[in-house]
Design a protein that fits this description.
The complex is a heterodimer.
Chain A lengths: L6 E3 L4 E2 H9 L5 H8 L12 H12 L18 E2 H5 L4
Antiparallel strand pairs in A: 1-2
Helix pairs in contact in A: 1-3
Chain B lengths: L6 E4 L3 H12 L4 E4 L8 H4 L3 E2 L6 H21 L10 E5 L2 H16 L5 E3 L1 H7 L5 H4 L3 E5 L3 E2 L2 H14 L3 E3 L4 E7 L2 E7 L2 E4 L2 E4 L5 H7 L7 E12 L7 E3 L6 E4 L4 E5 L15 H14 L7 E12 L6 E5 L2 E8 L9 H14 L4 H5 L4 H4 L11
Parallel strand pairs in B: 1-2, 1-12, 2-8, 4-14, 12-19
Antiparallel strand pairs in B: 3-7, 4-6, 5-6, 9-10, 10-11, 13-16, 13-17, 14-15, 15-16, 18-19
The chains are: A mainly alpha, B alpha/beta.
The structure holds flavin-adenine dinucleotide (FAD) and FE2/S2 (inorganic) cluster.
């Protein structure tokens, strides 16, 4: 499958080509890639894509990317509606 | 690792990278040290709103001149910073507030800022999802050239352009000490090596206090935790940033469609705790759905913490002091350091390269806290 068609981040619609191009331009830090491309900023918060990006980054740079450098998942973990959050019911 | 540089900048946020760009463009040999990755500090967690509607003349002028620079920045840097000028709408809740804001508007207009007071009917024309009753507004001020840019892309664009002019930018490199000789800076010690230099710029955000400690300078800045959230992406609904000084809320719809906003945390505390709180979530969602009830069906996706480096008068600390030559302050931005960064870089660059000073630079000197005659910026939000 072509790099243009291989989706790495489903939520933000980013392809293998997008990720590799960004790495080639010098974004060789997972957090920088995230902020440049919005990888991991979708509803799943990177559960689907971060490990893939980690592997792609390792392959391209030849350097180990430690698991602990994976960006954190931020609360509320799963999407919650503003109406639910605003309600006082427990 | 390099052995020397004309100027060493501590911190790779929007201010550090912006200054590195301005200096290297003028032929200055610059090194930037960033302990994590570029934009890992406040810059990476910020709302990146750009507002010219301030209560002090100085902030209004800094922001207005910065907007002029932002407008040309994507072209100049050769990278899109995603500037969007959808305006800032500031809700007015009562007569007393109206009086204060009328004064601000008059001052802002005298500078040439295209701001005006609008009616409740016009509020709905600008942001159709607002509920006038819910937000409790009697009017608003609106400036259409205010807006927003992408904070990461702005920082990366500055850094990339600076590198093209020969700046050396080191990420994952921590400044651990600064050596001085005869009241002048002489060396910067990092965990990767030692660099000789005549100038050190302290653009270390909330860590600026630590950097000042290295040279025995005390600053009155405190870290204040802030929380901020983002919803799922939506169709374009409105272009303006909506804020209220009374409720402390700010929110806007970003380039990609998500709504991003914040509000002061009910139990506000100083400190470095990063875990986000449930009370923020409740307070934010209650206030946001009061302002825009249609948003109650929208999902909130993420919520994170960032820090303001707050000074006693909510104005930044810039420039050199007599106590130590070559040590340049660039911190204390108190929650609005993104929007004025173009002018901050310009002013500090002119000072370092030409020795040029200005009324603004002098009024923002660290020495003002000794004189005790400080003018507080009132128009602070978030
Ligand atoms: C939630 C939130 C919302 C905000 N909203 C807005 C807004 O709408 N508009 C606006 O204008 N501003 C806003 N701000 C404020 C704005 O983000 C900051 O004022 C601005 O980004 C400061 O940039 P900086 O470059 O000075 O500092 P920072 O971005 O904090 O950069 C400092 C850098 O220094 C590095 N560093 C620290 N110590 C060392 C060391 N010893 N060695 C090497 N590196 C070091 C850090 O890692 C960091 O990357 C907001 C802030 C927050 C937290
Ligand atoms: S797949 Fe990348 S954020 Fe969900």
């Amino acid at each position: 499958m072509g790099k243009k068609k291989t989706i790495v981040c489903r939520c933000e619609d980013l392809t293998l080509e997008d990720v590799e191009n960004a790495i080639d331009t010098g974004y060789t830090d997972l957090e920088e890639l995230r902020k440049k491309l919005r990888i991991g900023m979708g509803p799943c918060q990177g559960r689907v894509c971060f490990q893939l990006v980690q592997k792609i980054l390792e392959k391209k740079t030849g350097k180990k990317v430690p698991i602990k450098s994976l960006p954190k998942v931020r609360p509320p973990i799963i999407p919650v509606s503003l109406g639910t959050l605003a309600s006082d019911e427990k | 690792m390099i052995k020397k540089a004309d100027v060493v900048i501590v911190g790779g946020g929007v201010n550090g990278c912006g200054l590195a760009y301005n200096l290297s463009k003028r032929g200055v040999d610059v090194a930037v040290f960033e302990k994590n990755y570029l934009s890992s500090g406040a810059t990476g967690s910020c709302g990146a709103g750009i507002r010219q509607q301030w209560s002090t003349h100085e902030n209004a002028e800094l922001a207005m001149k910065s907007v002029k620079i932002f407008e040309k920045l994507s072209n100049e840097l050769g990278d899109d910073i995603e500037l969007r000028q959808g305006g800032y709408l500031i809700a007015v809740h009562d007569k007393e507030e109206l009086l204060q804001l009328e004064k601000n508007v008059e001052m802002q207009k005298s500078l040439g800022i295209p701001v005006k007071i609008i009616s409740t009917k016009e509020i709905i024309e600008v942001v159709p999802i607002l509920d006038i009753k819910g937000m409790n507004a009697i009017a608003a001020t609106f400036c259409p050239t205010d807006g927003h840019a992408n904070p990461f892309k702005t920082t990366f664009a500055y850094a990339n352009a600076a590198r093209k002019y020969g700046a050396n930018i080191f990420t994952h490199t921590t400044v651990t000490d600064i050596k001085t000789k005869n009241k002048k800076v002489s060396e910067v010690i990092t965990d990767k090596g030692i660099i000789k230099t005549d100038f050190v710029v302290n653009a270390a955000g909330i860590s600026s206090e630590e950097i000042c400690d290295m040279v025995g300078i005390k600053i009155p800045t405190k870290p204040v935790r802030k929380e901020i959230m983002a919803t799922e992406r939506l169709q374009p609904l409105f272009k303006a940033m909506v804020i209220s000084f009374k409720d402390g809320i700010y929110f806007s719809q970003q380039h990609e469609g998500q709504i991003v906003g914040g509000i002061p945390i009910p139990e506000q505390k100083y400190g470095y705790k990063t875990a986000p709180t449930v009370s923020f979530l409740q307070h934010m969602s209650k206030t946001l759905t009061r302002y825009a009830p249609v948003l109650k069906h929208i999902n909130m996706l993420r919520h994170w913490t960032g820090f303001y480096d707050v000074t006693p008068d909510a104005r930044p600390i810039l420039g050199e002091t007599k106590d130590l030559k070559g040590f340049i302050h660039c911190h204390g931005f108190s929650g609005h350091g993104f929007m004025i960064s173009p002018m901050v870089s310009k002013i500090l660059c002119e000072y370092i390269v030409e020795g040029k000073t200005s009324d603004i630079l002098e009024s923002l000197s660290l020495t003002r806290f000794k004189d005790k005659k400080i003018e507080h910026e009132m128009a602070v939000v978030g």
